[in-house]
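Researcher: I'd like a structural prediction for the single chain below. Treat it as a standalone chain; there are no partners to consider.
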Amino acid sequence: MSNSYILELRDIKKVYDNGVVANKGISIGFREGEIHAIVGENGAGKSTLMKIIFGLEKPTQGAIYYKGKEMNFTSPLDSIAVGIGMVHQHFMLVPSFTVLQNIVLGDEPTKFSFINSKASKKKAEELAKQYNFQLSMDEKVSDLSVGMKQKVEILKLLYKGAKVLILDEPTAVLTPQETEQLFVELKKFKENGHTIIFISHKLGEVKQISDRISVIRKGELISTHNTRDVDTETISELMIGRKVEYEYSGIKQEIKSKKVALTIDNITYTQNGIPLLKDLSLKTKTGEILGVVGVEGNGQSELVDVLFGYKRAEKGRILIQDMEISNFRIKEIRERAKVAYIPEDRMRQGIAASASIKENIIASYYDREELNHKFMMNHKAITKVSDQLVKDFNVLCQSSDTEIQSLSGGNIQKVVVAREYNANPEFLIAEQPTRGVDIGSARFIHEKLIELRNKNKSILLFSADLGEALAVSDKIIVMYSGEIVAYFDNLADLTEKELGFYMLGVKRQSPEEIRRLMDEKIN
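Model: Treating it as a single chain, here is the predicted structure.
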């Protein structure tokens, strides 16, 4: 690893038109052949800084130097042209294209040039072989696993000559085994002189893979450390400005009067002739958090959609306590069965982006009697409820009249959680409730889920973060290929690695064993 900087930021400041200061004079140098982690809470300014490096934003002041020369990036094309690439948390691939078509996308023929498909394929295959990427160039991206799609994204950048790779939450959707493989690949990139900027909220992984760590808090660079010199507790304190506890057993109360909260009886759901849920059965109790884990695309999303009324199962029944909801509309599921839902995609399903915080908070129960007065909305009551939730959930904003899309991702998520929590549900579906959320906000959301559990409510927690699932859940099921392949009620000795084997289909419990375990714990 060289001590010279391949990429250097000097006094970067970013002030938006609305007066929000995202970056306050940040100076960081990135060395050639190093893995440099950037950590900080949501709203700390990490995303803005990466957007500036990648040409998506222009700094208000300051300069970017690449290989000693000052740069003036006006778009990602400029940064890619000099050798800086970024793999976004949500992949930017065309599912209907092949692997090769996605890799060469952007190098289409111009008036005076053409792409040599044979040469392009040879170059891509050589790069894939060099880094042991087991990819078929002719396979459609839609047929790939999440981990393989990520490899395509990385290969796209290598194909275009990137020497600096920005990876935004690269392990968020990977199994432990896929994460291990990614880390092997990152170390090989590093050995070959590439610089990796690694953005993550998983401090254990940051500690494992990085050479140096820079901590950003409230738009400022707090410090940069050699990774070997700091532990995860110190990093989290630097990020948040206070100590954060990770243990939840002390706040979980014993619930004695439990009853069946959810019954799923032989649900089958098919799409385009492909069974995505296969005779799936499940029972949960009140006063429990049941974690649902699995590699993305193994039926979790379809299960949520069927439970919340977005889709209809071809056969089977769903009961919330003793009420069958199989054919209920969403409004009936919310109001009659008292089900609340924290969606995975907060921007698309969770909020109306251009509306205010206040409007988003009341969206699910605007017709409540206490929020209306003689056929008109009671704005005073709405403001009172909204302001109290903003305060209780520590949403960082100017007021509840603030446009919600101006908030950081973590604060938007707090608004969504506040709304669903305030619905006073009997049953909560929480789908990736802390994805892309910083440690402090994640801890806060976990505590709110446990508060509901302690009130004898039932929570179904869908999470790609196995550490979260193990820490927060009382029991865990694993989904693979539209089926439940494992059920665990004793989590004390269960590890992320063990869960990973079930998630990949390497291990599975028999259907009879799963049903027996469920029945034992329900009766």
